[in-house]
Amino acid sequence: MKKMIALATMAAMVVSMTACGSKAETATTEAPATEAATETAATEAEAATEAPAANGTLVMATNAEFPPYEYREGDKIVGIDADIAQAIADELGMELQIEDMAFDSIIAAVQSGKADFGAAGMTVTEDRLQAVNFTDTYTQASQVIIVKEGSTVATPDDLKGKRVGVQLGTTGDIYAEDIEDVTLDRYNKGFEAVQALLQDKLDAVIIDSEPAKVFVDENEGLKILDESFTDEEYAICMAKDNTDLLDKVNTALASLKESGKLDEIKAKYISAE
Ligand code: GLN
């Protein structure tokens, strides 16, 4: 399993290295695209009378840069969220279509009806609950701190005044803003932040625990601090007015929990410690 993720991450690295010259470039080229996407999405929403789910296909919005939850294996997007979404679609007798996009475009895609739901290791937060509904949660997670071996950063308190890498628009990004005198470098992909840490451009990276384990396993000289930065829960998000689908997906999720299928999917991608 590890090898599969390693290959996928290496492929992602090649793509990200060729696609974006530098972090600064990535941030400036992709940020306006997000605004444009929001505008287009809003126009589409006005035009659309029916959600995509109405024709028997469930459209899932995700960001396939987040192993083991979603990542690319060749042309395919695989991972825990992809498998859970497929199992939900099966329960509902529907087809699943996965749309890959920037993490911070997912909520706009769901709000506009461009996607039926977002499944992207997405943490339930009060702010996001203003914009979308969340299903029942399906995973406990946390934001952890990755440092280089030998780092003087040993606990979250040591991040004061440090240069920290985060993934744009994630809870790591949002909560790291509260660290005193911190300098935050925001990356479109968590993997890019880890690369910058390896190149000594950062003192630490704050990212979700499972992707952190994948990145640390694949790169020599990194470790995850024992004390996590935050504890969180993941759920699937949906448009506020799509309560019918919310009920259906919650029922499907309950049945996957009950049957053991949910644990089976997690075990397929996360090896027991
Ligand atoms: N759990 C984090 C969040 O919801 C990161 C998710 C991700 O990067 N896919 O913000």
How would you characterize this protein structure?
This protein has helices at 2-19, 23-47, 80-92, 106-112, 126-131, 171-176, 190-198, 209-218, 243-259, 261-269, and strands at residues 57-62, 65-66, 70-73, 76-78, 95-100, 117-118, 132-134, 139-148, 163-167, 183-187, 204-208, 222-224, 230-234, 237-239. The chain contains ten helices and 14 strands. The chain has two domains: 52-138 and 235-269, Periplasmic binding protein-like II (D-Maltodextrin-Binding Protein, domain 2); 142-231, Periplasmic binding protein-like II (D-Maltodextrin-Binding Protein, domain 2), CATH 3.40.190.10. Helix 2 runs parallel beside helix 4 (106-112). With 273 residues, the chain is α/β, with parallel strands linked by helices. The strands form three sheets. Strands 8, 9, 10, 11, 12 and 13 form a six-stranded mixed beta sheet that branches. It has a five-stranded mixed beta sheet with strand order 5-1-6-14-7, with helices on both faces. The structure holds glutamine. Glutamine (GLN) is lined by residues 63, 66, 103, 120-123, 167, 170-171, 208. Glutamine binds next to loops.
